[in-house]
Amino acid sequence: MSxxxxxKRTQETANKLFGKGIKMDPPYLMWREFxxxxxxxxxxxxxxNLYSRTVLTLPERQMVACAMxxxxxxxxxxxxxxxxxxxxxxxPRKMAEIFxxxxxxxxxxxxxxxxxxxxxxxxxxxxxxxK
Length: 131
Description:
Elements lengths: L2 H16 L8 H8 L1 H15 L7 H14 L3 H13 L4 H10 L1 H4 L1 H17 L7
Helix pairs in contact: 1-3, 2-3, 4-5, 4-6, 5-8, 6-8
């Protein structure tokens, strides 16, 4: 695949994931401050190659990402991906269930942090309470 095609696919996937919802700077902007070329390569790999694969749908991929970020208590990154999950059509009730499932593997403090992040994003989007 040509570099231009990967750039186009990267942009299309990024728009689906991060093009609406809460206003939050993606990590890409910080990466660029340190190394523009490396930031572009990371972006093309993560968003243009990995996230655009079709083995998992974007909603499935986002649910996996949110579960892992909740379990590792990466709350700032979780906020970004919860918003992306909602942008690509993840069911809000399933998202809550995913965070409760984290208790088995990462404990209740991780669940509580994830639910706080989730509620904050839903409020910012005007989608709280969950219907």
